[in-house]
Amino acid sequence: MSEILNGNRLVMGTCYYPEHWPERLWKEDLQRMLDTGIEVIRVAEFAWSKVEPTEGNFTFTFWDHFLDLAEEVGMKVIFCTPTATPPAWLTEKYPEVLNADIQGNLYRHGTRRHYNYNSPVYRELCARITEKFASHYGRRKCIIGWQIDNELNCEKDVFYSESDTKAFRVFLKKKYETLDALNEAWGTVFWNQTYTDWEEIFVPRYTYSGSVNPHEVLDYIRFISDSVRSFARLQSDIVRIYCKPGDFITTNGLFDHIDNHKMTRESLDFYTYDSYPDFAFCLDMYTDKPGELRDRKWSRNLSEVRAISPIFGIMEQQSGACGWNTRLEAPTPRPGQITLWTLQSIAHGADYISYFRWRTCTFGTEMYWHGILDYSGRDNRRIREIRQVHEKMEAISEVAGGIYQARVGVLKDYDNIWDVEIDHWHQRVDSVSQKAIYAAAQKTHTPLDYVYLTDSIKTEDLAKYQVLFYPHATIMTEQRSRLLEEYVGNGGTLVIGCRSGYKDETGKCVMEKLPGWMAALTGTDIPEYSFIAPDAGRVTVEWDGSTFEAAVFTDLLEAAGENAQVKGVYTSDYYAGTPALVCNSFGRGQAWYYGSAFTEEAAKIFLEKLGVAETYHDIVKAPLDCEVAVRRKENTDYLFLLNYGKESAFVTLHKEGTDLYTGEKVSGRIELPGYGTLVVKL
Ligand code: GAL
After folding, report:
1. Model's pTM, two decimal places?
2. 418 CA to middle of ligand 1, Å?
3. For 482-494, what is each residue's pLDDT tens digit?
4. Which of 10, 224, 241, 440 has the fewest CB atoms inside 10 Å of its own CB, making it the most exposed?
5. Is the CB of 316 under 6 A from ligand 1?
6. pLDDT for 284 beyond 60
7. What DSSP designation does 24 have?
8. Cα 108–113–117 angle (5° rounding)?
């Protein structure tokens, strides 16, 4: 049985870099970690040269020595393959292993993740170093699991090296078999792009407008995902041969252009995530406008990880201020925030929390990326808080293995996620709706899951959700539409938004009446549509006494079929009075087609009118600033209340429960101090 994520207890860890510190500090560091409650460390993810300092010359003394010490003090270790940072000797001798920009310029040594996944030389050298690591260290008592590489597709998620072009051709030959089929799928007759030889095909190249055939780009992203998966598989297959029974294999991060579901199924035991919620306060994309979710938005990322692994680990949990010497800046967590963010991770399904990093590095690109300890290593406020977090984790440890409870889901699939990147209009509607639906769910205390329509998903996986949103199911296939029909037919409620069903799997528009494959299910016809022009003013929708704003786009609807009813209309512009919302009774359930993108206001009205808002209203009343989450284990519910605000918040428990931090019974009005958390066993 694995030492972490085994459903028995919560475990605390940290990321340690013995190669950054004089050996005299190691023992004291490990001992201090244990005294803090840290029982696992992750090591070696960037330490290739410590084992292969020059080509083909292997030495194991550094890690042998360190692992001896870990064993001596009783520290458990997650060991990594070091392939995120190839050594200088390697990239100089074999420049073909390097990734390149779209103009073919190679990314050189000096940073990290500058390799490509398809270079045969790199794959061979990675397989060799993985084999050396795994065969030499695989039986080590202190090692409990393995991390493959580090943050696959972080920093760069596009690849333009020569090896990528060669591998792309192989991928396409396998997929299409003939050039005729490829030309047809990519619509190459448009602008005279027809290919007459496989050698004429490249990964996307520099064009004056940045525009490349969209159907090619969709396949290119699928190709990147396949490349990452096969790279992870190459390593996990080797590690599995040598690791001890019960030791796990994982990888960390959550980055674009990867079918994480397939990768996890093929190569990993579970997924781990790196959570830095403070970015909410510093990156342009996470502005701190009133009403923004700020660090609470990280719950959205955690929900994405949960969609891959219902129980997961946090390999890197923020413990200090963040920043490179060249970019990025995020403030030091305020007193209480390390606890809050740790509990946020646990509330969403994390049973392992590992802080990044034990000591702040005094040199290099990340010398401003703070860990638990500052440069001097002396005790500080943050380590004192982490000791208290450990006490809390011990007190609530029985939640381990509990499953996050949601009655509402948002459906996703990789075709549409990747089409969003390529298609400006899809991007515009999707970014608005995804953000709005998540925010509306958070602010109405409606726990929400992301549910991926993978090849292996079954109707039972959908049946547990009362309501499923599929905001903009632009690319639709027959198989997916049948699955949705089964879900609704068996009593589910499906809500889809504008721009649905108009593309096939190649990303080409279909010639059927819209919404294509979903016409029967939604009982909707879409004879006309338009994006909301800048001079259209405020376009609103009226639904049963509620009026709210349409966003970005309007599908002008007609109810089609005897079970379809118009529920809402547009109230402005030339289409005032035209249906904006159609509800179709289908089997025992309902399918709703909403002709626009979802604003937060619209999403909230949907949650309320469909009777799923404030899921736990009979148990708890919480203010806006607090997140409500429930994990369930063997019929026991554990309620998490998280206050993201600086000020005290008051929650009211309508049902008596046990405050797991104190073991005391609680009910009625309870004060949560600023950044305060509470876990109640119901
Ligand atoms: C993560 C990465 C770590 C470290 C950290 C701070 O993305 O896995 O190696 O770089 O961020 O930048």
Report:
1. 0.97
2. 25
3. 999 999 999 999 9
4. 241
5. yes
6. no
7. G
8. 100
